[in-house]
UniProtKB/TrEMBL annotation:
Belongs to the ribonucleoside diphosphate reductase class-2 family. Its cofactor is adenosylcob(III)alamin. Its EC number is 1.17.4.1. InterPro entries: RdRp_reductase_class-2 (IPR050862), RNR_2_N (IPR013678), RNR_lg_C (IPR000788), RNR_NrdJ/NrdZ (IPR013344), TSCPD_dom (IPR024434). GO terms for molecular function: cobalamin binding; cobalt ion binding; nucleotide binding; ribonucleoside-diphosphate reductase activity, thioredoxin disulfide as acceptor. Residues 159-699 form the Ribonucleotide reductase large subunit C-terminal domain. Residues 46-138 form the Ribonucleotide reductase class II vitamin B12-dependent N-terminal domain. This is Vitamin B12-dependent ribonucleotide reductase.
Length: 928
C-alpha cells in the first residue's frame, strides 16, 4: 500500500487553474498541411534493429522495424530497444516509429482536450500534427520517461529530474532513503542538499553525538547501489550537496577522494578495477553512486581571493564551531577533484539571484546533472530541440521555425504536468502549483562548425547566447500566453515582483551580446521575444515557474541523430562506422563540408581537404586550409596526428555566455587533460564563478582506475629493499608455436609466438620486410626484447597495457574483424596477443597510463596523452541511411582513457555531461 501511495500520487488541480474559464489556445499550422498526415510526407523502410555486446553476443534484436529512411541505424536501434513497448516477439510489441509517435502525441492531445487547452477540435488536430512533424523530422524529442510511459500507463511518470528535501530528523532522513529508492527503481535521478542535518560535531537533543551527513551518505550510497544491481543495470543517478559553511564540509570534500584511494589499494591487491563489477574494487568502496557538489556563496569565494578566514556554523543554533582559512578549504576541494573528479561546485548566491520564486523558498539543490535547479520537493520533465534542423538553406538560423517549435514543445510539456504521477505528495503538490519545465537544445557544436564559427571564439559564444536567449524568451512568452487562457501557476502571485524582476534581468543581458558578431535577425528576434514575454507576463502572469535548462541529451540525442549533445562541441572530426553486413567505413564529419562551404571554399578545395582528413585523420596541414579557419574545426579532443583541441577554459567561457539566458543551469563536465594540476582546477572554478555560472564540475582524464600513489614509511622501505634476483624461464627445446599473418594499412607481416607447455607465450618473432632492412632489424630487436621480458616473468598484461594504442605509421584497416583498425604495428601486435593469450575480461581492455602526482610531468604513452578507442556498431540486416549512410554519431569516438564500459552491452562509453553514454546501444548513466 505504501509503494502504491508513493509512486502513484497525482496532484489536484490548482485553484488558479480551476477558476479560469477562458477558452483554450489557438494552434496555427506552420509545418503541416490540413488533411495530410505528417508521417506520409516521409519515405519509410523496414530494418532489423540489433545491438551486440562485446564478444558478438546479441543483446537485442527486433526484425521488420519500420522507420523513416532518413533515420540512422543507431537511431533505429535506440528507439526500438529503449522506447518500443510490449513484449518482444508478441503482436502487442510496437514495431514502427509511427506507433511510438502516435502513442505519445495522441495521448498528449487527448489530455489537452480534456483539460481545455485547445480553443477548438481543429486546434487540437493541428497541435497533434505539428508536434508529430517535429518528432518525425528529428527536430525535437521529449525526455526518456515520456517515451517509456505516456500512452502505456493511465497516469505515467513523465519527469526525469527530481529534487528532494531532507530535514534534521531521523524520520526525514529515512523518508529520503525510501523516496530515492523508488526513484532509482523507475530509472529517474534525484538530488538533495544535506546541509540541514546537524554535523558530527553537534549534540543530539538526548545528549548523544550526532552522526553527521557524511555518515548518512554512506547508507544512502549503499542503498542506491543495491537497488541499481537488483533492479536496473544502469548506475543510480544521484546528487548530494553540502553548504560550504557546514561544520562537516571538510569531511564531505574529502570523503570520495579517500574512498578512491581505498579502491586503488584494492586494485593493487588484485581486485578488478573496472566499473559495474560486482565484488570489484569500486563496488567495494563508498560514494560511487552519486555526484558530489559543494554549495558556495559569493562571500566564500571572495574570502578565497582575499585569503581570509571562514566560519563553519552549527546547524542547531547558527553559532560558529570552527574557523578555517577559506583558501585552505578551496585547496582541499580542488585536490579532491583532481584525485577523483568530485566535488563540483554550485554557486549559491548566483543561483538564488536568478530565482524567480524566492518568496516561496530558496533554491537549495539540483538534480544529478546540475541543470535543474528549483524548489525542494519538485520535478522537471525535459525536452530538447535539435539545432541543426533549424539551419536555413542559406546557412543562417531559421528564427521563425525555431520559435514555432519552442511554442509547440512548451505547450506539450505543460499539458504533461497535471496528467503525470509523482513519487511523493510534496513533489506532486509543488509540480502542480509551480509547473517547472526544462526545454533545452542539442547539436550546438555541430551548428557552430557548420556556420563557420569556432566553438571557442567570441563569435561562437555570441551565436550560442543569441539562440539560447531566443529559446528562453520565446518559452516565457508562450508560458504567458498559456497563462492568459489557463491562468498562471498557483505560486505566481506571491512571487510576482521577483519573477518579473528576473525576466527583466534576462532581457537586459541581450544588450550585452555583441551585435556585430550575430545575425541581425536572430538578435532582433531574441530581443523581441523578451519584450513579448515581459509585456504578456505583466498582464497575464506565467503558467510555469521555470521553462529552460541545458540537459546532456544522451539517449534522446541518439534518437534525433545529433552529432553533438547539449552544449558540447564535437568530439572528433573522424569517426568509424560498421557497415551493414560487415566491414568498416571511415567517416569524415558531415559538418566539415558545410563549414568549408560557408567559409567560401570551392568544391575542388573542399574535396581536397576532405581527402586529406580521410588519409591523415586531422585537418591540420590540409592543403589550401587558411590558418585563420583552423579553429573552426577544433574539437573536444586532439585528433590523431593533430595538436589542436579546445582548451578547458573554452568550455567554461561557452557556459558563461549562455547561462544568463536559462531559467535553470547547464549540465556539462569540463574535461581536463591528465596533466592538469589542482591549481588549474582552482582557476577553472574561480573563472566559472566570475563568469556567472550556476554550477561547474570538472573531470581530469585518467583519474580513475589508476595505481595508488606510493606514500608512507612501509612503501619507502619496500622501495629501498634489495629486489630478489629474477630467474629466466627458458622454453623447452621442442615447443608448440602459432604463426599469424597480418596486414596494417596494406603493409603485411608475420608473427610467430612460441609457447611453454602450459600454453603461455614465451617468445615472439616478427617479420615485416626484407632481411637486412632497417624495419627488419628493428622488428627483430623489438621481438627479442619482448621475448626476454616474457622469459624473465614480466606479465603479458603489463606489456599489452604498455604498448597497446601506441601511434605511428603504418596504421589503418587490418582486415581482422577482432581488431579492425590498428594505430601502429605494436598496437596491433599487443592487442592480438591480449586477445589470444589473456582471459577474455582482460584481453578486451587495456589499462590507462598510471596516475600522476600533482606537478609530475606526463609519462609518454605512445605519441599522445589521449587514447582513441575504436568501437563499432553491430552488423544488422537493415539498410544504410541518409544521403551517404553516415548520419549521427555511429562509430568511434575519442574517449576518456578511463571511461567505464556500458552496463548494457559492454562497449566503452564517452563522457556526457556529468555522466556517460554508450554509442553502441544508446544507454546512458544519467537521469535524462
Amino acid at each position: 500500500m505504501m509503494e502504491r501511495e508513493v509512486t502513484g500520487h497525482r496532484p489536484r488541480a490548482s485553484k488558479s487553474a480551476k477558476k479560469v474559464v477562458k477558452k483554450g489556445l489557438s494552434v496555427e499550422r506552420y509545418f503541416t498541411t490540413p488533411g495530410v498526415d505528417p508521417a506520409e510526407e516521409l519515405a519509410w523502410e523496414t530494418r532489423t534493429a540489433a545491438i551486440t555486446g562485446e564478444g558478438g553476443a546479441t543483446i537485442f534484436e527486433q526484425k521488420d522495424v519500420e522507420v523513416p529512411k532518413s533515420w540512422s541505424l543507431l537511431a533505429t536501434n535506440v528507439v526500438a530497444s529503449k522506447y518500443f513497448r510490449g513484449q518482444l516477439g508478441t503482436p502487442a510489441r510496437e514495431r514502427s516509429v509511427r506507433q511510438l509517435v502516435s502513442r505519445v502525441v495522441e495521448t498528449i492531445g487527448a489530455w489537452g482536450r480534456k483539460d481545455g487547452y485547445f480553443a477548438s477540435e481543429g486546434d487540437a488536430v493541428a497541435f497533434e500534427a505539428e508536434l508529430a512533424h517535429l518528432i518525425y523530422r528529428q527536430k525535437m524529442s521529449f525526455n526518456s520517461p515520456v517515451w517509456f510511459n505516456v500512452g502505456v500507463e493511465e497516469h505515467p511518470q513523465c519527469s526525469a529530474c527530481f529534487i528532494n528535501a531532507v530535514g534534521d530528523s531521523m524520520d526525514s532522513i529515512l523518508k529520503l532513503a525510501h523516496t530515492e529508492g523508488m526513484l532509482f527503481k523507475y530509472g529517474s535521478g534525484t538530488g538533495s542538499n544535506l546541509s540541514k542535518i546537524r554535523s558530527s560535531k553537534e549534540r543530539l537533543s538526548g545528549g548523544g553525538e550526532a552522526s553527521g551527513p557524511v555518515s548518512f551518505m554512506r547508507g544512502f550510497d549503499a542503498f542506491a547501489g543495491v537497488i541499481k544491481s537488483g533492479g536496473k543495470t544502469r548506475r543510480a543517478a544521484k546528487m548530494v550537496i553540502l553548504d560550504v559553511d557546514h561544520p562537516d564540509v571538510v569531511e564531505f570534500v574529502n570523503c570520495k577522494a579517500d574512498e578512491e584511494k581505498k579502491a586503488w589499494a584494492l586494485i593493487e591487491a588484485g581486485y578488478d578495477g573496472g566499473f559495474n563489477v560486482r565484488g570489484g574494487a569500486y563496488d567495494s568502496v563508498f560514494f560511487q553512486n552519486a555526484n558530489h557538489s559543494v554549495r558556495v556563496t559569493d562571500a566564500f569565494m571572495r574570502a578565497v581571493l582575499e585569503d581570509r578566514e571562514w566560519k563553519l556554523t552549527a546547524r542547531t543554533d547558527g553559532q560558529a564551531l570552527e574557523t578555517i582559512r577559506a583558501r585552505d578549504l578551496m585547496r582541499q576541494i580542488t585536490e579532491a577533484a583532481w584525485l577523483c573528479g568530485d566535488p563540483g561546485m554550485q554557486f549559491d548566491t548566483t543561483i538564488n539571484a536568478w530565482h524567480p520564486c524566492p518568496n516561496t523558498d530558496r533554491i537549495n539543490a539540483s538534480n544529478p546533472c546540475s541543470e535543474y535547479m528549483f524548489l525542494d520537493d519538485s520535478a522537471c520533465n525535459l525536452a530538447s530541440l535539435n539545432l541543426m534542423h533549424f539551419r536555413s538553406i542559406e546557412g543562417g538560423f531559421d528564427v521563425e521555425s525555431f520559435k514555432r517549435a519552442v511554442d509547440l514543445t512548451i505547450l506539450a510539456q505543460e499539458i504533461l504536468v497535471s496528467n503525470a504521477k509523482y513519487p511523493t505528495p510534496a513533489i506532486g503538490k509543488n509540480s502542480e502549483e509551480y509547473r517547472p519545465l526544462g526545454l533545452g537544445y542539442a547539436n550546438l557544436g555541430a551548428l557552430l562548425m557548420a556556420s563557420g564559427l569556432p566553438y571557442d571564439s567570441d563569435a561562437g559564444r555570441a551565436c550560442a547566447a543569441a539562440i539560447t536567449s531566443l529559446m528562453t524568451g520565446e518559452a516565457y512568452a508562450m508560458s504567458a500566453r498559456i497563462a492568459e487562457r489557463m491562468g498562471p501557476f498557483a505560486g505566481y502571485e506571491k512571487n510576482r515582483d521577483p519573477f518579473l524582476a528576473v525576466i527583466r534581468k534576462h532581457a537586459q543581458h541581450v544588450d550585452l551580446v555583441d551585435p556585430t558578431l550575430v545575425e541581425a535577425g536572430l538578435l532582433a528576434a531574441a530581443r523581441d521575444a523578451w519584450g513579448d514575454a515581459l509585456r504578456q507576463g505583466m498582464e497575464s502572469g506565467y503558467r510555469n515557474g521555470q521553462v529552460t535548462v541545458l540537459a546532456p541529451t544522451g539517449t534522446i540525442g541518439f534518437m534525433m541523430d545529433c552529432d553533438t549533445t547539449g552544449i558540447e562541441p564535437d568530439i572528433a572530426l573522424v569517426k568509424y562506422k560498421k557497415l551493414v553486413g560487415g566491414g568498416m567505413l571511415k567517416i569524415v564529419n558531415n559538418t566539415v563540408p558545410l563549414a568549408l562551404q560557408r567559409l567560401g571554399y570551392s568544391s575542388e578545395e573542399i574535396t581536397s581537404v576532405l581527402q586529406f582528413i580521410d588519409e591523415v585523420e586531422t585537418i591540420e596541414g590540409a592543403p589550401g586550409l587558411r590558418p585563420e579557419h583552423a579553429a573552426v574545426f577544433d574539437c573536444a579532443f586532439k585528433a590523431r596526428n593533430g595538436t589542436r583541441s579546445i582548451h578547458y577554459m573554452g568550455h567554461i567561457r561557452m557556459m558563461g555566455a549562455v547561462q544568463p539566458f536559462l531559467s535553470g543551469a547547464i549540465s556539462k563536465t569540463v574535461n581536463m587533460p591528465t596533466s592538469a594540476t589542482p591549481q588549474d582546477i582552482e582557476n577553472a572554478y574561480l573563472e566559472s564563478w566570475k563568469l556567472g555560472l550556476k554550477a561547474v564540475a570538472i573531470y581530469r582524464d585518467g583519474c580513475k582506475r589508476s595505481q595508488p600513489l606510493n606514500t608512507g614509511k612501509e612503501q619507502e622501505e619496500k622501495k629501498d629493499a634489495v629486489e630478489p634476483r629474477l630467474a629466466r624461464r627458458r622454453l623447452p627445446d621442442e615447443r608448440r608455436s602459432i604463426t599469424h599473418k597480418f596486414s596494417i594499412g596494406g603493409h603485411e607481416g608475420y608473427m610467430t609466438v612460441g609457447m611453454y607447455d602450459d600454453g603461455a607465450p614465451g617468445e615472439v618473432f616478427i617479420t615485416m620486410a626484407k632481411e637486412g632492412s632497417v624495419v627488419s632489424g628493428l622488428m627483430d630487436s623489438f621481438a627479442t626484447g619482448i621475448s626476454m621480458a616474457l622469459q624473465y616473468g614480466v606479465p603479458l598484461k603489463v606489456l599489452c597495457d604498455k604498448f597497446s594504442h601506441t601511434r605511428y605509421e603504418p596504421s589503418g584497416f587490418t582486415g581482422n574483424p577482432d581488431i579492425p583498425i590498428a594505430k601502429s604495428v605494436t598496437d596491433y601486435i599487443f592487442r592480438w596477443l591480449a586477445l589470444k593469450f589473456l582471459p577474455s575480461e582482460e584481453g578486451s581492455v587495456v589499462s590507462p597510463p598510471p596516475l600522476m602526482t600533482p606537478g609530475q610531468a606526463p609519462a609518454r604513452h605512445g605519441s599522445s596523452e589521449q587514447t582513441v578507442v575504436v568501437k563499432s556498431l553491430p552488423a544488422t540486416n537493415g539498410a544504410m541511411n541518409g544521403a551517404n549512410g553516415v548520419n549521427g554519431v555511429n562509430g568511434a569516438h575519442v574517449t576518456d582513457t578511463d571511461a567505464p564500459p556500458c552496463p548494457t552491452c559492454g562497449s566503452i562509453t564517452v563522457r556526457n555531461g556529468a555522466c556517460y553514454k554508450c554509442v553502441n546501444c544508446g544507454s546512458t548513466t544519467g537521469c535524462s
